[in-house]
Amino acid sequence: MNWKKLFCAAILASGTAFAQGFELGAVGGFSYAPSLGVTASLGVTESSATASAGIGHGGVVGAYGGEDMYRYIGGELRYLYGFGNLQASSDNASVTFARNTQTITFNVLGYLRPTGSAVRPFLALGGGVVVVSGTGAESAAQPLGNFVALTHTRETLGVGDVGVGLKISISKRVRLRLEAHDYMSPFPDKVIAPAPGASIGGFMNNIVGVASIGWTLRGTD
Amino acid sequence: MPLWPKAIPCLIAMLPAIPCAGATFGTVVPIRGTVSDIALDSLRGQVYAANFSASRIEVMSTYNLTLLAPLGVPLPPSCVAMSPDNRFLVVGENAAPFAANGGFTIFDLDMGERQDVTMSGSALAVAFGAGSEALMVTTTGVFLVNPLTAKTTPVTATMPLPVSLNLPVPLATFPPQIIQAAAGVSGDGNTIVVLATAQAPAQGTASATAQATSIYLLLRYSIPTGALGVEAFQTSPPLGPYAVAVDGDATNVLAGWGLLHRLNQQDYGWAEFPNGTGAANIGTNAWDLGRNVIYAQQVVNGDGPVLHVVDTDNLTVRERIQLPENLAGHSLISSDDQTMYAVSVSGITVLPIGKLSKTAQIATQEEDLMFQGDACSRAVITQTLDILDLGNAGADFTLSVPQGTTGVKILTPSGVAPASVQIQVDPVAFQNAYGTTTIPLTIASSKGVNLPFPVRLLINTRNSNQLGTVVNVPGKLVDMMADPSRNRVYIIRQDKNLVLVYNSTTLQPITSLRTGNTPVKMSMTTDQHYLIVGNDNSMIASVFDLDALQPAAPILFPFGHYPRTIGVSLTGIFATARVVGSLPACLQSSTGGTSGTGGTGGTGSTTGTPLDQIDFANGVANTPCNLGIYRNNLTSANGALAESPGNLSLLLALPDGNVMLYDYSVATWVDSRKDFSALGGAYGAFSNNLFLADINLLDAALVPIGQFPAATGSSSGMGIATGAGLRTTAQAASGPGLIERVDMGAFSTYHGSALTEAPLLPASLPTAAVGLIGETILPFIRTLAMPADQSSILLLTVSGITQLTPNFDAITQIPSISSVTNAADGTASVAPGGLVNIVGAGLAPAGAWATSLPLPFALGDVCVTVGSTALALFSVSPSSISGQLPFVPPGAGTVTVTGPGGVSSGYDLTILAQAPAVFLNGSAGTQTGLATVIRDDNQELVDFTNPIHPNLGITIYLTGMGTTTPPPALGAAAPLDPLALVDAPPTVTLGGVGLAVNFAGLTPGEVGVYQINAQVPANVQGGTSVPLAITQGGSSTSLSVRVVTP
Q: Which residues of chain A are within 8 Å of residue B947 when distances are taken between CB atoms?
């Protein structure tokens, strides 16, 4: 699946929501993914060394479409395009490598206030897929190559999404949303490939803070 | 050109050693009679030739070289001169047979008038300078002749009168032999110089021999001041030919064979033509002010009519030009510098010197060609000789080696220049020499007018135990010394009158310094600022400022003293010299040494061979009347002086066995002994108390205390290295030579080691004389030098300089091989033409690396063979050797290493037809040992961070892929066009998926390195460790790479 197909799928999903008279919005924000520790063996007689690697921070843009199916529960399909640099670092070296991410998730939104409220805090819970792509130029002399190789390739991973936010009605049809999500996925070990003898453990958390502007075709109040 | 003059050189050529070639330079205009002098009328385009025997003036047109109507004169015309305004022709005349009076005739060419004047005696020389009056030298005096009035005015000078032969003369006596005088004029016209012969003055103490020797007069008449200076001197041989060439301001005058330099109102013998016989009637001199060269011919035994083009400062021969006939007296050069007119044996020879540079001439780019074989390879060696067409006139050439020479093949022995000629030498023909055989390669041309200098073919067939790296230095090298405070070594190149300055570490030339003529030996002042060089054909010692590497004021020696060797002590600088002429009065004493008891000296001779002492501060040398208690009259001029360390004493060794010692502390000569019947070869001081003369060790009193074995050959060099003495010997010039340590306590030698080639020996240096190129080889020679940093030992050897490591005699073990692997992945699989590493012990005495392609077959005194075929070598060290396997047939093979320590045991291995192996010597960042697989898109090595992707091109570098088409020569760079393709195409797979191979062959410009260019398909599978396999023939190799998809 490439980027273009993903985008079409998002539009179709939004169209479904719209057809039921629901909300369509645009998203922009910032992401931050804490690096994970990398442990590499330095040889038979030496102790191991550590570094850290991850997809780093960057910007995100995207879109969503959804519907409040009940007074306190809604659902939405969300697409986010993230951009930034893969990164790896140790005490005395670091390396970055251009990357992008594309994330599609379906979330169930649980509101703390019913439909029609001017301000509606909500919790989001969902999942989907993320495609992590290394887009930088590879080099034989890439620093920290004994820990990881930041690779020009693409990797698709499952992702879980937990979020919290506020939906604020600005007018009858316009909604402002402020929200934060934690996209949890396996570590992209093809794009950030641990070197032979090195290991990276744990899930990757990509924390995204976004603001959204949404439109509803049919007002809820 | 008439036919008969051309026949002369070829008739002469029937004699051995006399050049014969078809082309000569110049045109002869025959004149019926004998020409005594010529004058040029540039206004009318005419040359006036005094026809002495026909008593008339021949007139030759310079436009068409035809003779016009002659001018009659009443008496035999001995000399002619043209006034500067081209109006008056003054003809000096000899007295008629049995008559006492000669005269002169003045032709007013503008008015068509003539005046005949009679005078007592015969006119000998006449010349106009820039003034209006001619200077005429006669047997009765010197006069100024006013051409307008025909009035003569005597020029007062106290001088012996010039002489000439009275007529009639015996048959076959020619004008220069009769007249015995010649005139020349400086370029500025202010000075007229006349060379004439005077009768010997009565000298009561002179011997009969001295009385028979001519006295020559050199007259300098200054036109601005009217002053006439006269110097009288004797020469041996006679100062012929009678021709005077003068430079622009008369500072330098070439009279006969002697170049005199004017300094402080005196003439000094700056340089002389060597080898001349001094014949009066053959030869000439002319000073080409525009080109700053001298054209000269002298009679040289064995030489034909050859014009020498020489330098004006020291008479170094630049070129030798073949003449149609011998020149015979006065020459002059036209004002436009285009034409030289010379009296010649049959009339006038016209030489278009302005066209000489465009006239067919042959030369070679290389003076020497070295063919260095080694113990492992006796394969034919090919070198290229570049033939130059100096005149750009399409001159032909013919190359030849002496008849009977075997083992030398000239692939293109004749052709048209410019050309590059390959010369092949088969070392097998010379392999028993174990040294350097020198073969002269002669270059001849039927169209070329010059006589090219022969090229030396230097063929070395060293054995593995022969030490030293030879650096070629062309020319006749006669002395060498290292600079004790600078990283330099100085070498005298005698044939070009140069001191060559080399970097003593790199042996790269730094510069060259021009000496006097025929430099012999040199020494250095105690402050190490100046180099002093003795010249055997100059009455000066050349001095060079070593800080500036520039010439300094020379040391002026007494007239007739030619310094040869120089000895510098802390309290005196002495020089041996060839002395011609009389000794100072104190040395002529017949009583010296005869009074008292037991005196045997005192010959009473006016001649001898004294030692001169140099006053360096004042730039002069003088002849002391005694050397301490000893008479200053050496038994030979062929001795040599040497300093002890610190310049504390001087050793003087003479070829008849005499030795003398100078002690700086008492500033005199303190010892003189004769314990040997003959001495020669090496000489010098190991210390202030231990001296060497030939093979004899002498103590501080010069008493013999030891003798080295003579069985190793003639002694050549000696020196001190790291506290121990050294000496070199050789049996023959073409042999190996030997260097030994000297135990200065036990007076014995040890650790003798054979040399790559022989050090120079006095006996091997002399060669047949070549024209006017000097050669003075003393019986003593100095061929060993230790540079200031003591980093090497330098020897003067047959081909130039041989460089040895100071620990040349370090114990060398027999080489032993522990493994032979391919140089790529270190496995035992090897193939013909592949690169290999040999690991072992004692493989080489020290590290050495090839510095150019093709690779040598011997390196650092080491060579390697598989079977009987040598490997081409990249590097050698005591523990490893890297090289290229020869293209031998696959199968079992045995590798042996041959070095100074001997020959290793054979190492058996199997040579496969193909044994592909990828190099594992790549590096990226901090990574090393990477396989040399390159991604074509970013030209970087494939590694974990630079993985292979589908659809990429990759290039794999490897060795061991076997034979190719075309096959390159072993050790040579692979060709670019056409590319060398492997004969057995490989297959390449990545994770089992085949790659398209676009090219498999040798990498252009590399030796033994192959490459495969392949394309990764789209369907390759990814992985961290994917096998990249190369299979060729029955062999394969594999390595793991990371593949990332997509």
A: 138, 149, 151
